[in-house]
Design brief:
about 25% strand, 9 helices, binds adenosine-5'-triphosphate, about 30% helix, alpha/beta, Rossmann fold, six-stranded mixed β-sheet
């Protein structure tokens, strides 16, 4: 665990980019003409930590992570990755700037093989500076199973293996920050454990991970910090070890911390 992970954000955190991988200030977003779903989120994440976003259904977790990835435009606020303002960048340019995203569903091409999925991802991230030829080997070293079966169709992989492939495709860009939208969705408890172990390996490889999770127990087990979103607002931020599942019930029913 990173002892610094739960340090409170400095008053003017965005002025000092050296100490954060991801910084979010006053972020607001919503759909069409509807009201804000992301209602003014401020958050600083230290490098090489895992922060898990949890909260009740419909609280805006996926919308928040989609706003970070650039799939939902920010209405207000600012997003920085390692000190660079990426708020106005397209999703593809955010990847080039070091922010990779793995969506909850349809995150690999089922009709393509493992090798073809990795090749396609490599083509996509050509613009990312500093990604050398060794990146594929480094990524496959994290997920050796994938390297052993390059010709297997992604559609024939188990749910857990498919998540590993999706992680691997995202990591080919050598991101500073990896965003994961509910990697445990639809997986059996054993496979959830393996998937979470993979998330820890990703962090150990030097990547900062922000993940949205419905599986609170799994999230608490691997995270440095937990962020609770209620109705689009950050309701609690705490070290994962300090959060008890029983305490979350009150928050999930709307009690502000
Ligand atoms: N494409 C969309 N268009 C309009 N409203 C949307 C869209 N996607 C989500 N919403 C609305 O935004 C709100 C937050 O949804 P979001 O999926 O971000 O929450 P969540 O916390 O991730 O939920 P869950 O835990 O159920 O996945 C909900 O009221 C939802 O109906």
């Amino acid at each position: 665990m990173n002892a610094h992970a739960a340090a409170p954000p400095p008053a003017s955190a965005l002025d000092d980019p050296r100490d954060h991988a991801l910084a979010v200030a006053g972020l607001r977003a919503g759909y069409g003409r509807g009201g804000d779903i992301v209602c003014g989120i401020d958050m600083i994440q230290k490098p090489e930590t895992i922060v898990t976003v949890i909260g009740p259904n419909g609280s805006g977790k996926s919308s928040f992570i989609k706003t970070l990835a650039g799939l939902l435009p920010a209405r207000a606020g600012r997003i920085e990755v390692t000190g660079r303002d990426i708020t106005a960048l397209s999703p593809a340019r955010r990847v080039a700037a070091g922010l990779a995203y793995v969506p909850q569903e349809a995150n690999v091409f089922a009709s393509l093989t493992i090798a073809e999925n990795l090749k396609l991802a490599t083509e996509f991230i050509r613009g990312r500076a500093g990604v050398g030829p060794g990146q594929r080997e480094r990524v496959l070293a994290l997920f050796p199973e994938l390297g052993q079966r390059p010709k297997t169709l992604a559609g024939n992989l188990s749910g857990g293996q498919r998540q590993m492939l999706a992680f691997a495709c995202a990591l080919l860009a050598n991101p500073e920050v990896l965003l994961l939208d509910e990697p445990s969705a639809g997986l059996s408890p054993k496979i959830v454990g393996e998937t979470m172990e993979a998330v820890v390996r990703v962090r150990e490889a030097g990547v900062t991970v922000l993940l949205v999770e419905q599986n609170v127990a799994a999230a608490l087990a691997i995270a440095d910090e937990v962020v609770v979103l209620v109705a689009g607002r950050l309701s609690l931020r705490a070290k994962a070890g300090d959060v008890k599942q029983a305490d979350l019930a009150g928050l999930f029913f709307g009690k502000e911390a």
